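User: Show me a protein chain along with its predicted structure.
Assistant: Here is one chain, sequence first, then structure tokens.
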Amino acid sequence: MLLARALRAAAALRPALRPPPRRLLLSSSSPRGGGRTALLRPRRGSAGGVSCGCGGLHTEGDKAFAQFLTDEIKEEKKIQKHKSLPKVSGGWELEVHGTEAKLVRKVAGERITVTFNINNSIPPSAEEEAQEEQKPDEQEPELTSTPNFVVEVIKDDTKQTLVLDCHYPEDEIGEEGEEESDIFTIREVSFQPTGESDWKDTNYTLNTDSLDWALYDHLMDFLADRGVDNTFADELIELSTALEHQEYIKFLEDLKSFVKCQ
């Protein structure tokens, strides 16, 4: 339920006019960031490959590709900020299943869960702006993961779960001078049956676009009282960014093994 809902929210947030730029692998002398070089292109008219006995095809291009990935992995590990995933303060317990993560907190008869997925969590504009604005010999900016996240509040004595679909507005990430402003917003609010795995579209869903500000502020205060505030949102970005980078390195390692047929 949560993953499907989060993906639906991501689709609604990202412009559908054209696909986001693909992550570009960087050269061995350049840290991961907006100014990455293009993917290694296959050689034109190269000689046929040979098999090592595993039944797979091996070419000179594959060999060069594997060496490129080896160098790339070394560089990514050098700039990896967190060797292990950072913790979120406030007594949150972390569960990770591949690219999906869940934070769980229990407070006075309530169970609060926050679920997010790091796939497609780096805004396309971040890579585009980095490529356009970067000057020669200038350090490349770090990529930041700002995933949509879903908050579930479950009370012990009820059969309904309050579900709040949240996201980070792209135009507010990294803004300074507005310390009291919220760095995340609530997009939708709904009640769903506790324990159900599928989101019921027959249940009323409140969209906050045209919501009375007083009611919206009370919803934000409701989340803050349960530990989902700006501090939490900042720490979630750090956690998500670390998880995204960890999964990116793992993908490169899997790609290298696949190319080398190991």
